[in-house]
Structures are given as C-alpha cells and as structure tokens.
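Quick one, T. Sequence first:
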Amino acid sequence: MSRLEVLQDPKQRKLLFSAGLSWLFDAMDIGLISFIAAAVAVQWHLTPQQVGLFTSINSIGMVIGAALAGLLADRFGRKPVLLWTLLLFSAASGLSALATGFAVLCILRLIAGIGLGGELPVASTLVSESVPAQERGRAVVLLESFWAGGWLAAALIAYFVIPKYGWQAGFVIGAVPALYALYLRRAIEEPPRFTARSRTQRTSFGERFASVWAPEHRRSTIMLWILWFTVVFSYYGMFLWLPSVMMLKGFTLVKSFQYVLLMTIAQLPGYFTAAYFIEKFGRKFVIVAYLLLTAISAIWFGNAETEGMLLAAGFCLSFFNLGAWGGLYAYTPELYPTSVRSTGVGLAASLGRIGGVIAPFLVGMLVARSVGIPAIFAIFFAAIVVGAIAVLFLGTETKGRELTE
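Structure tokens:
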C-alpha cells in the first residue's frame, strides 16, 4: 500500500504530499549540517567546541522560529506562515555557500534555523486540522516520514557531492526549496477549521500564550514541554554528531558518510510501523514504546566497537527514534483547541529546540575533555527515558478523538 493511499480524499492526499515535500526539504537542510560540520571541521581546522557551536546555532534559530511561527499562524493563517518560513530558510541556506568565515556561516545558519523551526510545527498543524479523526494520526506520522526522505537526500549529497565539489555545494542544493514555495502557494489551502473562525474570534498573542497554561491545558503543556525537550535534546545530540562520532571511532570521513547513509534508510520503516501502530494501539503506546527502544539502542550504539555492531545499533537507533518523532508530531496538535493549536505546538517545539541547542554544544565540550562516547550516549539514554515516563504518567490518549474548537 502506498503511504498516500490511507487518505480517501484526493485533496487530502495532495495536501499530505505537498506539505511532505516541504518537510523533506527541511530535513535535507538539517541533515546536511551534520555532514557539512564534519567536512568544515577538516577544512577550517575547527575545534570540537566550534563544531558544537556550529551544529547548535541552527537550533537557536529554530527556538525563535518555532515560537514565533506558532503565534503568527494562529493569527494570520497556516498557509502564509508556511510559505514565508520555507523561503527564509532556503535563502539563508543558499547564501551559506558564500560564507568565507566561521562567524558569517554561523549567522546565516541562525537565520536558516528561524525558517526551519517555524515551518515544522505549522505544517503538522495544517495537516492535522485537514484530515478526519480516524486518519489524522496516521496522516501526520506519514507527513513526518518525509523527514527520512530528506535525511536520505542529505546522506546521498554528502556521499556523492560534498567529497567531490565541497561542502558549499550542499548549501547551494539547500536553496532549491525556494522554487518549491511558488508551487505550494497554489497547491495548499487553509484548513476549514481555521477559516471558519471569524477575525473577531482571533485572540492576541498574550491571550493565546496564557490559554496554553490555562488549567484545562496545563497538564498537557507540562508533559509536552518535557517530552519535546528530551526528544530534541537526544536527537540533535546523537544525529548531528553521528558522522563525527563515526570518525572518532576510527572511520574515515567518506566511510562515515557511507555508514550514516545506510543507517538513515532505517528511518523509513520506523515511520511506517509507527503510522500503523498509532491508529491501532494509540499515541501513548507508540511514543512510549519507541522512546524506550530508542534509549536501549543509544546505549548499544555508544558501546559498539565493531562495524557490524555499529551498523546494527545505528539501524535500531534510526528506526525507533524517528518512529517516536512521528508519534510526537501526531500527538501534540491533538491536545489543544483550534484557537491556540498552532501556538501550543509552536511553544512546545520551541522549548524542545532549546534542547537541540544544548546537546550538540555539550557533546563538543565533552569530546574536547576526552569523555568517552559510551558515557555521552548514556546521557541521551537517561534523557529519553525521562521523556517516556512523562508521557506514560502525564499524557492522555487522543486516538479517535475529534479536534476541539
């Protein structure tokens, strides 16, 4: 069965595919950073702390972008915010190829991060509001599955393009989504739930922020902020450093890219199994189970030494971690009403991106101090378990529930 055949309405399939491609371009840009970081470090003789800063600066922008875009999307609409964030990160990515110094490159990656961080929560909200309850969870997980396609594209670019043409070529390719925004302008429509609200029903930024912490939403907000922080912290700490970690374990740059490419392929079945289980067993089951299995995989990968063990552990790490991400994006919009849905998703994602800022920089500091890879991955193990516990005890099941107005 095609991943798009789960939706009966052709308009909904078109929306999923259109938003999914924008998601793919996001993932490609972020994925390229992990490979470019390893290449730039060699060419510019960067210290581990500088590599950590370079991989973190993108996430600093994503903190700003996620919160700002969430607020703007509840005020001005999902579609225009999605288009402008796509254009912003595409332009900044293309200009990054022209950077002649480390500081300029970091500034451009900060701007790109604002666009990247804004697009993801808005796209998931748009799809969630446009699909019937019985298909909603699966549709959003399948939207998230395009992320694997983006990382796969990044891995292919890193393996075939960067070694031959340099890391600048990767950023040039990252500017291509700007052209796609012209297609999206006609291909997608505002969700009916949003357009049905009159201008007088649209509240101020302050009112929407306060509503997210209202008594009826407070438990969900606390749970989501813990979940997002721990998931993003562990993901960016592990995956942005993956090529560099492979080099620390004794592999060459090209060999590291090759292994990460193979590991990336495991993301797709991770998403597809999560898409199946999320409507069969529920959101909490998928998120908790996949997170705990991710934690086990992290310990395994951190302690693996042989090529076979590294590949097997990396496959499991990609499979379960990205399946959990699919559940996370499906679950979050379902916990808020339409009036503050994008705000709630954006703020949770923004808080999570703080973890994405801290983790890569923390890894750089620990590597510089000769802390072993097993100990570093033990930190990620603990963070992931905390996120799973938060969902288990604070989360409410939303499977089959209609979105509230």
